[in-house]
């Protein structure tokens, strides 16, 4: 087993096993996922639509153009065809990307 601490407060830990991985997040809630039932993991940015809409309206009156305001990074994947999302805000981006790459390699080998 390999334990990777992506964030200390609030906690976000990924534990890697031979045939699965576990994500432990806030309040020590944990979920286990078999590699064979997971599609590839990816990091996406959630868009703050409220702030974006306000920006567009505000910029319209100032003869400008509004921007998309992206918020926090989200780890997302499908597990047994059910979407899963975990916030990565405050985590180590480089370590997170390395961990996701490692998991994706294992997923490719298990398919």
| Strand order of the biggest β-sheet | 1-2-3-4
Count the helices. How many? 2
N- and C-termini, Cα separation: 21 Å
Query: Overall mean pLDDT score?
Result: 82
Number of strands: 7
Task: Determine the oligomeric state from the structure.
Answer: single chain
Question: Which labels suit this protein?
Answer:
single chain, 111 residues, alpha+beta, 4-stranded antiparallel β-sheet, 7 strands, globular
Question: What features would you describe in this structure?
Answer:
This protein is of the alpha+beta class and 111 residues long. It has one domain (2-44, 75-110). It is 28% helix and 41% strand. The protein has 2 helices and 7 strands. It has helices spanning 49-61, 93-110; strands at residues 2-7, 12-16, 20-25, 29-34, 42-47, 70-79, 82-87. The strands form 2 sheets. Strands 1-2-3-4 form a 4-stranded antiparallel β-sheet, covered by helices on one side. It has a 3-stranded antiparallel β-sheet with strand order 5-6-7, with no helix packed on it. Strand 1 (2-7) and strand 2 form a beta hairpin. It is globular, with a radius of gyration of 17 Å. The protein starts with a strand and ends with a helix.
């Amino acid at each position: 087993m390999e334990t990777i601490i992506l964030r200390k407060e609030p906690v976000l830990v990924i534990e890697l096993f031979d045939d699965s991985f576990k994500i432990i997040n806030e309040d020590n809630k944990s979920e286990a996922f078999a590699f064979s039932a997971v599609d590839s993991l990816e990091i996406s940015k959630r868009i703050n639509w409220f702030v974006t809409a306000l920006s567009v309206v505000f910029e319209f009156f100032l003869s400008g153009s509004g921007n998309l305001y992206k918020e926090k990074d989200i780890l997302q994947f499908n597990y047994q065809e059910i979407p899963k999302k975990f916030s990565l805000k405050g985590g180590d981006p480089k370590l997170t990307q390395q961990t996701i790459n490692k998991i994706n390699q294992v997923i490719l080998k298990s398919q």
